[in-house]
């Protein structure tokens, strides 16, 4: 299985750190945030990676190179201007191939077991959900008997981790759009499964949550 790491955002809420470097290169627990993902993916046997970028993307390419230093193979999907989550994935599909692939937001810190994630038969997407953090109390999706729902009295938050089938984007055209725009009709059709993450997870979207990630995972990570 291949994997795509989303790394095209400007990280405006992380300023001033992101004024001169892309957010995935901000150090968390002693190494760039994106390297934690790469290391975990490699440990799970996922070594063929695609990384999109826009803001200061040349720095990502310079630091990560072809990935050989980290035991993986990296190809980059340069966007110029960000295409949002869905548009960025759609642009990178020629690099990802025709089989299901792992998707990871570049601005989270987690200890999820990537090797344990899979796309069930008949599904176009499998989402990993987490308990709602303080900054997102209303959640995103319901989870009922392993299936994602839009209508639920209690919702969980999408973690930024998923397994997707390229066919999820079969009706899309080039341009900026959100991943949720293609997920919604698939959810209604019963083609999106999910699970609740029991491990650690932080959305490193602000300086305060950067400190939270440092504390939760510790330097030993």
UniProtKB/TrEMBL annotation:
UniProt domain Nucleotidyl transferase: residue ranges: 2-145
Presence of the UniProt keyword Transferase in the record: yes
Keywords, ordered alphabetically: Nucleotidyltransferase, Transferase
Gene3D superfamilies: Spore Coat Polysaccharide Biosynthesis Protein SpsA, Chain A (3.90.550.10)
Cross-referenced InterPro entries: GlmU-like, MurU, NTP_transferase_dom, Nucleotide-diphossugar_trans
NCBIfam families: NAMPUrTaseMurU (NF045761)
Name this polypeptide is given: Nucleotidyltransferase family protein
Species whose genome carries this gene: Pseudomonas benzopyrenica
């Amino acid at each position: 299985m291949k994997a795509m790491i989303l790394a095209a955002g400007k990280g405006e809420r992380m300023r001033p750190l992101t004024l001169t470097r892309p957010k995935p290169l901000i150090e968390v627990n002693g190494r760039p945030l994106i390297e934690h993902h790469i290391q975990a993916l490699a440990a799970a046997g996922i070594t063929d990676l695609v990384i999109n970028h826009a803001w200061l993307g040349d720095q990502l390419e310079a630091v990560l190179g072809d990935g050989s230093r980290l035991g993986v193979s990296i190809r980059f999907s340069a966007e110029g201007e960000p295409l949002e989550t869905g548009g960025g994935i759609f642009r990178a599909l020629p690099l990802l191939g025709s089989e299901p692939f792992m998707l990871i937001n570049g601005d989270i810190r987690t200890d999820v077991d990537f090797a344990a994630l899979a796309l069930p038969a008949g599904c176009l997407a499998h989402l990993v959900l987490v308990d709602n953090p303080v900054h997102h109390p209303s959640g995103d999706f319901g989870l009922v008997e392993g299936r994602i729902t839009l209508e639920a009295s209690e919702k969980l938050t999408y973690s930024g981790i998923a397994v997707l089938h390229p066919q999820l984007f079969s009706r899309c055209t080039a341009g900026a759009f959100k991943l949720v725009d293609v997920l919604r009709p698939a959810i209604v059709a019963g083609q999106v499964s999910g699970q609740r993450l029991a491990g650690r997870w932080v959305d490193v979207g602000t300086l305060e949550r950067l400190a939270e990630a440092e504390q939760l995972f510790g330097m030993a990570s």
